[in-house]
Specification:
By secondary structure, this protein is of the alpha+beta class. It is built from six helices and nine strands.
Length: 229
């Protein structure tokens, strides 16, 4: 197996269709989300980190940075005023196919998104998780995320928990976890393609899979409501 983590910006790269396909398998088929919620307007400006195994997309996560024009991120409606006056980032839609969940794929994707936001100068980061996803919650706590605001019912009618990371107060870089985090970072960067992914025709040997993925994307791309996980 040959692992790789690539970075996409927005939705124009053909590989994003396969990201939508993974979200469909995880969020719709497993978690019972409505199919129209897996792609949103925020994906157009987001940075997506995509894990591949021998060229097959096996997982992804997305990172948003709120601009002044955006107003509040949708998750902020459940959180109340955030304890930061600066730039806010969001990590969302962490999804890994079932056969790879015993590997550190989710951890590496989280490190990639987290480091991207920290390096972009955010002062705080928000995310949320379904209450029953104990593994996800433990993973987020490793980065310093804390419950923040009110629990709510997410789009599949399941209880969910919002989390917030105050970078100055809770970031792993400022605590005793920094050595472990640096080890994780050094490990995942072995698989990271540093520049933005550029899909070429010669590189697209999985044409039939690309076509199916584009079909999934076309079914969801018009959705204007953001739903994340």
């Amino acid at each position: 197996m040959k692992y790789q983590i690539v970075k996409l910006k927005g939705m124009n790269d053909p590989l994003f269709g396969e990201v939508a396909n993974v979200r469909m398998k995880v969020f719709v088929e497993e978690d019972q989300y409505p199919s129209g919620t897996i792609v949103s307007n925020l994906d157009r400006d987001a940075t997506h980190f995509v894990a591949l195994d021998d060229g097959r997309v096996i997982g992804s996560v997305s990172a948003n940075i709120k601009t002044s024009e955006q107003g509040r991120l949708p998750i902020e409606s459940y959180m109340g005023p955030l304890q930061t006056g600066g730039k806010v980032g969001e990590i969302c839609k962490l999804a890994v196919l079932n056969d790879w969940r015993s590997k550190p794929v989710a951890l590496y994707l989280m490190v990639a998104a987290y480091d991207h936001l920290i390096e972009s100068g955010v002062d705080g980061v928000v995310l949320w998780s379904m209450s029953k996803k104990a593994k996800n919650i433990r993973l987020y706590s490793k980065f310093g995320f804390k419950r923040y605001g009110d629990d709510f019912i997410c789009c599949n009618s399941e209880p969910a928990i919002p989390f917030f990371l105050d970078v100055a107060q809770d970031s792993v870089y400022d605590g005793e976890k920094s050595a472990n985090h640096r080890r994780f970072t050094d490990s995942y960067k072995k698989y990271l393609t540093p520049e933005l992914h550029q899909q070429s025709q010669a590189d697209s040997g999985q044409g039939a899979q690309r076509e199916r993925s584009r079909d999934v994307l076309s079914q969801t791309q018009d959705n204007a409501e953001v739903q994340n996980s």
